[in-house]
TrEMBL record:
Residues 15-88 form the Transcription regulator PadR N-terminal domain. It comes from the Bacteria. InterPro entries: Metal_resp_DNA-bind_regulator (IPR052509), Tscrpt_reg_PadR_N (IPR005149), WH-like_DNA-bd_sf (IPR036388), WH_DNA-bd_sf (IPR036390). It comes from Lacticaseibacillus camelliae DSM 22697 = JCM 13995. Gene3D superfamilies: Winged helix-like DNA-binding domain superfamily/Winged helix DNA-binding domain. This is Transcription regulator PadR N-terminal domain-containing protein.
Amino acid sequence: MISSDSMRGYNDALILAVLAAGDSYGYQLEKAIRDRTGGAYVIRETTLYSTLTRLVKAGSIEAYAGEISYGRPRTYYRLTAAGKRVLAAKRKEWAQTQAVVSKFLSAEE
């Protein structure tokens, strides 16, 4: 399993990438991240919701009330135009990060 510390800087990008495929609510986001990583990374609930709050405040995603579950509306999230731009920048940054880190960690010297 990958540590939370290793993934901390990538939570925004992971959530934005999941939302690029369609609107989702908290548990669906957590499950999508867990499933796509084969269980190697499980985002903590507190981390997920604090990241969602930060992304809403930044204008990268929007929250809206969806279907009612257990007597209250479920909060769904969707990617905004600004969020699509942030995701594109995060993807570019990730490619650059991989290129730099692999220079040090790909082979033993």
